[in-house]
Amino acid sequence: MRASLFGxxxxxxxxxxxxxxxxxxxxxxxxxxVLLLARGNxxxxxxxxxxxxxxxxxxxxxxxxxxxxxxxxxRLDPAGSLSRLVIRTERGAYRVxxxxxxxxxxxxxxxxxxxxGLPVAEAVRLLDRAVALVTGEVLExxxxxxWVERIRETYRVRYIDALCAIAAARLETxxxxxxxxxxxxxxxxxxxxxxxxxxxxxxxYGSDRREMALRVFGRFREELLEELGVQPAPRTVSILEAMxxxxxxxxxxxxxxxxxxxV
Length: 263
Known about the structure:
Blueprint: E1 2-4, E2 10-13, E3 16-18, H1 26-37, E4 43-44, H2 45-53, H3 61-76, H4 83-86, E5 88-90, E6 93-95, E7 102-103, H5 104-115, H6 120-132, H7 146-172, H8 176-189, H9 194-206, H10 210-228, H11 234-244
Parallel strand pairs: 1-7
Antiparallel strand pairs: 1-2, 2-3, 4-6, 5-6
C-alpha cells in the first residue's frame, strides 16, 4: 500500500486509488490518518478516542472503533486478503505496520537525508524528487484537526528548508532561473525567511534583474520590521552593498553561508 498525506489523503492499493471521500465518512478516514501518522507505532484505542473526539468520546468507544476499522478494511481490500495485514489489531490498540505501507512523508525524509553531504548535482536531484512529493500541506483536508497541527508544521519547515537548499545549490552552479524559482516559493510560504531572501536577491542580480533584487530586499525589510521589529541580518545587507558596487554575481555566492545547503 502507498499512502500520500501531502495535500489530501490518497491511498494506492492493489491497483486501486482511494481518495478522502472513499472511506464512508470522516471518522473512519481520520482513524486511518492517525494510524498512518503513527509511522508503524501502536495507537491505543483510548488515544484514538482522545484525538478524534476529545471530551465527546462515544459511550462504547471500543465498539465504535471496531466498526470503523471494519469499514476501513473493507474499503482498502474488498477481497479480504490484505486488509488485516495493513491494519492490525493489537491488545486494546491498532497499528499500520511500517513494512505494510510506503508513506510519502517517509520518502521525503529519506531523500532529504540522502542529499546531505553529496556533490551539488546529486544533492539537487534528490531534493527535487523530495519537493515534488509536496502537493500541499499535510492532510490539508483536516484544517481544524489539532492532532495533525504539529506534523503539518514540521513538514512545512522541512519543505522550506529543502527549497532553500535547492536555491543555494543552483546558485552555486550558476542556475539563476532555477534558484529564483525555489527562492520565490520559499518567500511565498514564509515572507520573512532570510535564507530565501538572500538567494532570491542573488538569483535576480545574477540574471541581470537588479531592480527586482532591490525590490525583494525592500519588501523583506518591511515584512521583517512589521513582524519582528528587527532589521535584516548583516549578511543580507552585505549582498545589497555588493550589488551597489556592481560586484561579480559569482562572488556573491560566498555571502550565502555553507549551511545553506543543509536540510
